[in-house]
Every structure is written in C-alpha cells, then in structure tokens.
Amino acid sequence: MPAPIEFYFDFSSPYGYLASEKIEALAARHGREVSWHPVLLGVVFKQTGAMPLLQVPLKGEYSRRDMHRSARFHGVDRFRVPTKFPIPSQAAARVVLWSAQRDPALAARVVHALYRAYFVDDQDISSPEVAVAVAASCGLDAAEVRAAIEDPSIKEALKRANEQAIAKGVFGSPYIIIDGEPFWGLDRLDQVDRWMATGGW
Amino acid sequence: MPAPIEFYFDFSSPYGYLASEKIEALAARHGREVSWHPVLLGVVFKQTGAMPLLQVPLKGEYSRRDMHRSARFHGVDRFRVPTKFPIPSQAAARVVLWSAQRDPALAARVVHALYRAYFVDDQDISSPEVAVAVAASCGLDAAEVRAAIEDPSIKEALKRANEQAIAKGVFGSPYIIIDGEPFWGLDRLDQVDRWMATGGW
C-alpha cells in the first residue's frame, strides 16, 4: 500500500475544513490513507509575515465570498464562518495529537468532530471545555482529554509538530504532501487527484 | 451576446500569464469575449500589504515549484520564470491601453505577444524599447508606440485603470469578473467555467 497522504491544517482555517471533508474519499480512490497533522498557523505566519485572511484589505472581503462559493462548488453543504473567527487552536490541536497517540482512526474522527463543531455548529473550540465535550462525543474520556490539553508532553508534541511542519515547508492550510510533493490549498485537490493517479507530470 | 469576461492582470504575474493562455477558449465555449485590463500590482499591494510572491519565506519556494507544475497541469507547455523577475510593468500596460483605444482585437494580440515575450522568451518587457519591439511585431507603428508610452494621457489612463480595479476589489492577478462575480487566481478557472455554464450556484 502506498504511503498515506500527509494533511496539514489549522482548526481555524475554513479552507482546511472544506478540504478535510473531501480528502479521505479522494485518497481512498487511489488506495491511500490520510495522516492528520494539526498545526498552528499563527506560529507559521511569523515566518511568512502573513496576517489572518479576513483582515487583509480587499482580499478579506473576497475570501469571505469565495469560502461560501467554494464550499458549494465542492459539495460541502454545511459551512458557516463562525461567530468567533479566527481562533487560537491549541486546545483542539492537542486533543488530536493526544488521540493519535492512542488510535489514528480515532484521531481522524476527532478531527472531523472538532472541525464540524466549529464550522457547522459555531461552537468555540478554542475553549478547552468545548474541545473536551466534542472529544467526549467521539467516545473519549472527558477527564483524560481535559488533562491531556494541559499535559506538558502534549504541549511539547505540538511545538515539535509545528517545527517539523515548517521544516517541511508548510506555510498555509490545508497543505498536503504526497510522496514528498507539496500542494497548498483546497484549490489544489484537482492536482492532488491527478498526482496520485499518475505519480507526477 | 452576454457581457465580456473582465480579465485583470499584471504583466509581471506568472499565474496571470498562464490564465491568459486559457481564458479566451474558456470564454468562447460559453459565447463570451474577454476584455483585457492590465493593472499594476505594486499599487494594489500597497492596499493589501502583500509582497512579491517569490520573496515570501516558505511560500516563495513553494510557488516557484507550483508555477511550473501548474503550467504543465493546465497544458501551457511554454513557460519559464524570467531572469529578471518581478519587473515594473508600466510600459507594457500602457502599450496595451493605447492599443485598446485603437482596436480591442489588436490589444488582445499585444497582450499575448508581451506576455509570451516575457514568460517564454525571457525578454525584459519592463524596457520601453523591448515593449515597443514586441508591439511592432504585432503590426503597430514603433514610433507611435514609443510616444504612447510617454504620453501623459496614457499614463493617466493607467492610473485610472488601477483605481477602478481597486474600486472593484481587484487585489491579485489574474482576477476575473463575470457579470459582477469575482474570481481570483488561475485555480479558479474551474469555477469560472461552471459559473458561465450555470449562472451561479
């Protein structure tokens, strides 16, 4: 079986959410699995000088329109820009890293549950309490998740994950790596598809 | 006949060049023509705080790779990143505005000739002499083109064109407007296609 697709994302990223709804079916069509890599774009943006998308003059207004149009274009029916946006996503990212240490399949379910809580149900997943409740809805033990969010080893794991992502060139969300080839953005899913089918061009 | 597609671009924009090679056939499939709008992204970037793409840490390296990959993906076989890149594109933009005042069809030919001179033949079209020679190859009178580049009314027309573009929300290249709906980037051509087919979704 070929290597999994590496899927880097920030829980505060709308295009990351939209791509998260598409990537597993896309990967499966080519016999691939997805490895989920939550990162903190705030850390990455210090490298690139980028600012939160909706705060950029002109581009911000366009992007708000484009997000909704792109959601419909890609057939993701359920999407809204949350009331609190963007958010710091440490708590959610740590929950995923901790889940992944226990069970990668469970971590994938937690990713979807957290993303949908934020971009569908408008829950503020930057709140540890909310993140814990969402994880508990996936069958995790609430007290264990609560402890994991404050666990120094999990905090350290997220720092390392960010550093490793930057070392691989990740500068945005979603950022997908297939056998070393990088693809940035929801709008590269067509190239991601062809790359898996052909091995490159 | 429906209204033309508005195609905003900077002559220094690789993705603008790639889209310029695709947009007319795409428009024609839906019974549309293309109106060409050269703008200066340097002016626009003062609004958005953006910097030249290849100078952005991480994103710059990715983009260089992505440009070549996207060129091949879209079937644009002839493309290189020019030796001198990016460039100020005033001279080329003024030649197009002046041509368009005389003959829109001629202006379209001049757009393609200038873009290909830069991104295929590695000619420095920021040089008025080079821009004049390219225009002359399209059948324009070299002395008239040379005068047009320094003509105060053409300089003023380009300033107005930039202001009008910013007023319409243009912040990047290519930027395509169809019946008021804006699409930014080569990677929105799939949405552009469907939008013309369906009138929106």
Question: Can you describe this structure?
Answer:
The structure is a homodimer of 201-residue chains. Chain A is built from ten helices and four strands; from the N terminus they run βααβαααααααββα. Chain A has helices at 14-20, 23-29, 41-48, 59-73, 90-102, 104-119, 128-137, 142-149, 152-167, 189-198, and strands at 5-9, 34-38, 175-178, 181-184. Chain A has a four-stranded mixed beta sheet, with helices on both faces. In chain A, strand 3 and strand 4 form a beta hairpin. In chain A, helix 6 packs across helix 7. The longest helix of chain A has 16 residues, at 104-119. The mean pLDDT of chain A is 95.
Features:
10 helices; 201 residues; globular; alpha+beta; homodimer
Helix content of chain A: 40-55%
Average pLDDT, all residues of chain A: 95
Q: Helix and strand string of chain A, N-terminal first?
A: EHHEHHHHHHHEEH
How far is the N terminus from the C terminus of chain A?
Answer: 21 Å
The tally of strands of chain A reads 4
User: What oligomeric state do the depicted chains represent?
Assistant: homodimer
Greatest chain-chain contact: A-B, 32 and 32 residues
| Major sheet characteristics of chain A | 4 strands, mixed
Unreliable runs of chain A: none
The number of helices of chain A is 10
| Gross geometry of chain A | globular
Proportion of residues in extended strands of chain A: 5-15%
Q: Pairing-aware structural class of the strands and helices of chain A? A: alpha+beta
Radius of gyration of chain A: 16 Å
> In order across it, which strands form the biggest sheet of chain A?
2-1-3-4
